[in-house]
Design a protein that fits this description.
membrane; globular; 2 strands; 11 helices; mainly alpha; transmembrane; two-stranded antiparallel sheet
Length: 298
């Protein structure tokens, strides 16, 4: 019984982190039909931005929960600087090209951004240890959990709910849904599709930098952390269905619980089980659990 509780707690914590990392990737694909391979590099930039702001001398006296606001500010600054720049001066040049071309463009962008990270921050590890101790420890039977991990769970739930409400319950969301359904008809109705793409991509970049910023206290920040993030994000969105926010949440929980079960019962299969679950889902439903089969336009 105790093992089941540990698996559930570990799985939910890890699944929440996975959702936080993957939600921006599935949002951008859902709106723009772009599989943004640079999402991992943007996640890494968010982590570095948070570390830079929190460790800077200008904010050295900031303590307590105000540090979380500094981390949020770092994510926002990175997204505002990079989102519009990348969409307007790079991606917009390739919208009329094949989707594979856009995939290659974002892959090249990820390599460029990783080198930019090395040029700005170097190759040595950065640490943001302070915020990780803000919430203390939580006792669960014989085990202790770091309270910050459950803060990540709450943050993931909040981000998911806000994203869902914006897309489904606001006028902005209705415009975005119209563009998702058919961008050509949306243009004919007077909707500025280019502005929708700009907003969606910038928000997707913000979700990536937000995930990186609040993951920063949990890890050693290196230029390569984005590689692991994009691989796991891809597994999550493939399981849930590309473009589905709810699917990303379910996919993250499935991956989190599967990984936790493997760690507690079969540690050697920690990584194998994630891709085994993804392969099984693809065999049964190639479009993902909540994905929709796309009809070709003639």
């Amino acid at each position: 019984m105790d093992v089941a509780v540990f698996i559930f707690a570990d799985g939910i914590v890890y699944g929440a982190w996975l959702f936080l990392v993957a939600v921006g990737l599935t949002l951008v694909f859902g709106v723009m039909k772009i599989l943004n391979v640079a999402h991992g590099a943007l996640y890494a930039i968010g982590a570095y931005a948070a570390a830079t702001v929190v460790n800077s001398e200008a904010f050295g006296q900031v303590e307590g929960f105000a540090v979380l606001l500094l981390m949020l500010a770092g994510a926002i600054i990175a997204a505002v600087l990079l989102g519009p720049l990348l969409e307007r001066f790079l991606l917009r040049l390739f919208y009329e090209r094949d989707e594979v071309v856009l995939l290659l463009v974002t892959f090249g962008l990820s390599l460029i951004l990783e080198d930019v990270i090395k040029m700005i921050w170097g190759v040595y590890s950065y640490y943001v240890p302070g915020p990780y101790a803000l919430f203390g420890n939580i006792e669960a039977g014989p085990l202790f959990y770091v309270g910050y991990d459950f803060f990540i769970v709450g943050l993931a739930v909040f981000v998911g709910l806000v994203t869902y409400l914006v897309l489904d319950r606001t006028n902005v969301g209705k415009v975005v849904q119209s563009v998702i359904h058919d961008d050509e008809i949306s243009r004919a109705m007077g909707i500025n599709v280019g502005r929708v793409y700009l907003g969606a991509f910038t928000f997707g970049v913000f979700l990536a930098t937000l995930a990186g910023a609040f993951t920063a206290p949990m890890i050693a920040i290196t230029p390569s952390i984005g590689v692991n993030a994009i691989i796991l994000s891809f597994a999550v969105v493939v399981i849930g269905g590309l473009g589905s926010i709810g699917g990303a949440a379910i996919g993250a929980c499935i991956v989190g619980l599967a990984r936790a079960a493997a760690i507690n019962l079969w540690p050697e299969a920690e990584l194998f089980v994630i891709y085994a679950v993804m392969s099984l889902v693809l065999l049964v439903r190639p479009e993902g659990l909540f994905g929709q089969i796309q009809q070709r336009k003639i």
